[in-house]
Amino acid sequence: MKTFKQMIAEVEEPKSGIAKKFKEVNTKDGEETKNDTATDAQFKGTTSKKKRIADKDKVLPESDSRKALNSFSVMLESKNKMLKETFKAGNMKLKDGSTTKVTNEEAKALNGLFDGLNDTNKKKMQERLTVSKSSFAEIVNFAKEV
Which end of the chain has fewer CB atoms at under 10 Å, N or C? Predict the structure, then answer.
């Protein structure tokens, strides 16, 4: 009775000329040779990674990292505050072609009112606010009351 290895050896014999040459080159004394193009590390996943520019050898001292974190959080807070301020003090151009001056007090009142509205009402408020000076004054007065 043939062993499993003997049966496989009979089946795996190459038939074409190119396949036979390949087997001759890649076998030595009946045993398969290792492929020279791939190393064991590639198959095992133990290759070492090259250092990147972003990889730092030195770790910042704790005081420096806290300073960096604090300055970053201050910057982030000021950025968020700027994003929340929909209305700013200065001149505002209206749809009827006129301009109106927005004071700091009015801008604060408008932003307070605006933050409390849902998206639909925010859009309505912005549209009505920019129609004319009278509609602008009406909404500013309402915002100051609230």
Answer: N
